[in-house]
Design brief:
The protein has about 150 residues and is mostly helical. The protein has 2 domains: about 70 residues, Winged helix-like DNA-binding domain superfamily/Winged helix DNA-binding domain (Arc Repressor Mutant, subunit A), CATH 1.10.10.10; about 55 residues, no CATH class. The chain is about 70% helix and about 10% strand. It has 5 helices and 3 strands. It starts with a helix and ends with a helix.
Length: about 150
Amino acid sequence: MSKQETIDLINSSMLSLMEFTRKSRGPIKGFRARDLSILIYIHTDNEHHQVTMSQLAQNLKVTPAAASQIITGYEKNGWVKRVRSTVDRRTVYIQITDEIKEKMLEKWNCHQARLNEFLDMLGPEDCENFHRILEKMIDFVQEKMQEDLYVM
């Protein structure tokens, strides 16, 4: 297989994965990949499963006002709630709602089942090779990200 054929195959695979992910994203109306990454950040950033608006803004690399606008939309959808700190009433935390936690867990479990099916289909040898290649890909991407940080 030529290098160009490999590039074409990678691009085709990525498009197929993105389309599969897009189609299987429901049942949350209006749910996008960025929404998922923000909700996961809110839920997994610390052991209390909550973040402040400034933490969220810093993570998203946006202003606190822009982060607040995103969260307001999420509140309207019932995805998050604002919770006042019991220690300092001026501090407001953002948490995902129990309904969204359940839906995210349901999606996660479905995703894990699909991955297991895929890895079973590959078999042990291909699975090992796939793992080795993914590690190389991650190392490459992280190295390039570090280089990009110094270019700015």
